Amino acid sequence: MAIHPTAIVDPAAAIDPSADVGPYVMIEGPVQIGPGTRVQAHAHVSGWTTIGRDCQIHPFAIVGNLPQDFHYTGERSYCRVGDRVVIREGATVHRGTQPESETVIGDECFLMAYAHVGHNCLLDVGVKVYNMAALSGHVEVGPGAIVSGYALVHQFARIGKLAFIAAGARAGMDVPPFMTAFGESTIIQHNVLGMRRAGYSPEEIQEVRQAFRTLYRSGTLFRAAVEQLSDSVRTRAGQELVEFLTADSRRGICGPSPGHRVVQRKLSQTPSQT
Questions:
Q1: H-state helical runs in the chain
Q2: CATH number of 133's domain
Q3: Is residue 56 included in any domain, yes or no?
Q4: pTM, two decimal places
Q5: Coil/strand/helix, residue 186
């Protein structure tokens, strides 16, 4: 076990012999660090935090610190980081707020410099949070989703599988799987490139493309559009999309762009042609 002589390591911590702890690192509390993980200079890991194998914790990252929540009064809560996770410079990951609750970073996630993951967030496998993006508390992010630089995600929002949130966007509502969010809680297209890279078939991509048109371009009321999809989808991707749309939501689902809202209103007000 390589622990730099300037590092401060709590006696209660459990560090694998193959892990590496760099200069001026602070490890405070019953932290557990797995095999092959490297904690670089000036990083701070604290609390009931577990870090898996082959992770990289870069300089000045803060993992497992107290949640930024006025209701937190010091009860035991957790921060769990999976395997092969990269947490870059200055990124922050806070532990849960409620007693025995947890913040979870899944395997192979990538948090870029100064990204923030708030208390009680759940990030599935392969999530990427780019520079300066911020996830408020209790956000759920599905596998392979990307939150681009400077984007903001509201508390209790859900980000679906392989969803893409554009740079500077503000997601105040749920972003469905395979969709691209832009601006203020707005869906502008489906994430065809992400689906191709993830190995989805042309049939699945086509069904998601048609689902996007039904939800956001047809002028159909959203609830009716979801019911229509529930009866028509056949592929795995389509079923995953419908499952997300019909699950409980505390924030509602992101809508179409303002221009398409205007078009939909005009369509609904135009008398039918005979």
A1: 192-197, 202-216, 222-232, 236-246, 258-269
A2: 2.160.10.10
A3: yes
A4: 0.92
A5: strand
- Secondary-structure percent of the chain, ordered helix, strand, coil, rounded to 5: 20, 30, 50
Q: For 2-49, what is each residue's pLDDT tens digit?
A: 999 999 999 999 999 999 999 999 999 999 999 999 999 999 999 999
Instruction: Give the strands of the sheet with 62-65, arranged side by side.
Output: 8-9, 26-28, 44-46, 62-65, 92-94, 116-117, 134-135, 152-153, 170-171
Report the helix count and the strand count for the chain, using DSSP H and E. 5, 29
Give a yes or no: residue 194 inside a domain. no
Q: Are strands 186-190 and 179-182 parallel, antiparallel or unpaired?
A: antiparallel
Name the residue range of residue 85's domain: 2-138
Identity of the amino acid at 220: T
| pLDDT tens figures, 244-264 | 999 999 999 999 987 654 444
Mean pLDDT of 98-116: 98
Tokens of 11: 């006696």
Q: Identify the residue whose tokens are 């405070």.
A: 28
Domain-located, residue 206 = no
Count: domains in the chain: 1
| Residue 117, in any domain of the structure | yes
CA atoms of 142 and 55, how far apart (whole Å): 20
pLDDT at residue 259 in the model: 60
44-46/26-28 β-pairing: parallel
Cα separation, 128 vs 224, whole angstroms: 33
Long-range Cβ contacts of 265-273 (<8 Å, 24+ apart): 267/219, 268/219
Structure tokens at 149: 């630089």
Cβ–Cβ < 8 Å for 177, 163: yes
